[in-house]
Amino acid sequence: MANSIERSISPTLLSYLNQERIILVSTVNAENQSPNMNAISWFTALDEETVRFAVDRRSWIVSNIEKNSFVSCSLFANETIYCITGKATILSSQLPGLPLKLTCIQVKVNEVKNIMFYGSKISVEPGYVKTYDEKAAKKLDDSVLKALRTYTID
Q: Domain residues of the chain, as ranges?
């Protein structure tokens, strides 16, 4: 099924978004208005209409969103490629309780598209391995994802 468009995240995709995976975040470059794409992994869905992610506060993603809040987040899941678009808000320039200075960004979902070309499916989803201490990476990942899921605005 190619090119389907939904207004919210399906229950199946919601479960995929709460597992560690590669997410491609696209923004508009604040300096020259060209497309900008970054791969991230600290990403979670709060519900069918809201996703959050964390990036280093020095990331271009942050300065780009400050100038133009429209973003797209693409991922491989369920034998296809999805693109979630929406309007981003910087909730916190530094998520509390973490050893890194990470910005918390929330996206209000506008639409979810299946962007896989017609007549095909993904046979193997891309994967990755951490290139530093596996135990430290898991501890950091768990802490960041917990902070993303529980952060509330004062």
A: 5-119+128-150
Global pTM reads 0.94
Q: Are 63 and 27 in contact (CB under 8 A)?
A: no
Residue with tokens 């529980």: 150
The residues pairing with 25 across neighbouring beta strands, listed in sequence order, are 38, 73
In this predicted model, what pLDDT tens digit does every residue of 118-141 receive, in sequence order?
999 999 999 999 898 989 999 999
Instruction: List phi, psi (to 5°) of 4.
Output: -75, 145
Report the SS3 class of residue 147: helix
Fold of 5-119+128-150: Pnp Oxidase; Chain A (2.30.110)
41 token code pair: 């992994």
